[in-house]
Write a structure and sequence with these properties.
Helix content: 25-40%
Number of strands: 13
Distance between the termini: 33 Å
CATH class of the domain at 3-78 and 149-219: Alpha Beta
Number of helices: 11
Shape: globular
CATH topology of the domain at 3-78 and 149-219: Rossmann fold
CATH architecture of the domain at 3-78 and 149-219: 3-Layer(aba) Sandwich
Strand content: 25-35%
Largest sheet: 6 strands, mixed
Order of helices and strands: EEEHEHEHHHEHEHEEHEHEEHEH
Strand order of the largest sheet: 5-6-7-3-8-9
């Protein structure tokens, strides 16, 4: 599989401040890549460098084999962009906006088909200022697709949307992947990244602190699975006396970590034989959001150092 995006040792400095500090990663052609990080981590700076909107200080960057800064005109013909908090002219309609963008790119465009693709056909002739937040984001997606891009940069496309509108955007992202397009996604919704992304990179303080698939990151940095039992704290004392597994009390439940099916069977047997009344149980695994919060917190506390740091 070829690389749609290649970043090697990228830096961006503002005097003594290193907004992006020597990061490297690649994005496969046709993949959904989620680029995650807290506010101020370096996400937007990196994305703007990839889009050719900001000049890098050092390192090398290629998008579709082109340097975004020196080959910006050629690159902009091949990428689509929806920025954070997409805004447009108040009295333009979605149909008019699509036609306008088609003329800007000198591309033939079928407004009804494009608006139908992003589930906006019924609002084709409504003024922009009458659209809901989700409908405005859908129009942004439609405009990002006017030039038939090979790479789509979607910067927090679902921020502030209701669950139904968010899921509609997710379906568009999945359709872009099905078409073989590459999607570079930034989002603060970690469950969104876990559901949609083939590749994930987490950036903090200008450095990438974790990368891989969501499952790989969870497996590498997350806690083991836990059996969560609805029971009083006395159960924890009984289990600690009979099991060599970590046991915690949390909010009216008792949590026991386990790694294998044999461990789980031993925990269940110990719970049943404890003599302590319990009312139910469930299993729990860390999510990408759990791991993200843990990694960022540990780095802020100086417990975790990014890969390659001394």
């Amino acid at each position: 599989m070829t690389d749609a995006i290649r970043v090697d040792g990228l830096t961006k400095s503002y005097g003594p401040v290193h907004a992006v500090d020597g990061i490297s990663f690649t994005v496969d052609q046709g993949a959904v890549f989620a680029f995650l990080g807290p506010n101020g981590a370096g996400k937007t700076t990196t994305v703007e460098i990839l889009e050719g909107l900001r000049r890098r200080t050092g390192g090398s960057v290629e998008v579709l084999g082109l340097d975004p800064w020196s080959d910006g005109r050629a690159l902009h013909e091949k990428v689509g962009v929806i920025p954070q908090d997409f805004r447009f002219l108040d009295k333009i309609t979605p149909r008019e906006a699509v036609v306008y963008y088609g003329r800007l790119f000198d591309r033939p465009v079928d407004p009804p088909a494009l608006l139908a693709r992003v589930e906006l056909a019924e609002k084709a002739d409504a003024h922009y200022d009458t659209l809901s937040g989700g409908q405005k984001q859908k129009l942004g997606l439609a405009l990002a697709l006017v030039n038939d891009p090979k790479v789509c940069f979607l910067d927090e496309p679902t921020t502030g949307l209701d669950p139904k509108a968010r899921r509609a955007i997710w379906e568009v992202v999945r359709s872009l992947k099905a078409d073989g397009r590459t999607v570079f996604l930034t989002t603060h919704y970690l469950e969104e990244a876990q559901l949609l992304a083939d590749q994930v990179a987490i950036i903090h303080q200008g450095k990438i602190i974790a990368e891989g698939t969501a499952a790989e990151i969870i497996r590498r940095y997350g806690r083991p699975q836990r059996l969560v039992v609805d029971a009083p704290p006395e159960l924890a004392d009984r289990l600690r006396a009979t099991l060599r597994l970590p046991v915690q009390v949390a909010g009216g439940t008792v949590e026991v970590e386990y790694r294998t099916k044999d461990d789980l069977q031993k925990v269940l047997a110990a719970v049943q034989g404890s003599g302590v009344p319990w009312s139910g149980f469930s299993t729990r695994s860390d999510t990408l959001e759990d791991v993200f919060i843990s990694l960022v917190g540990r780095m802020d506390e100086g417990v975790l150092h990014p890969p390659g740091a001394s």
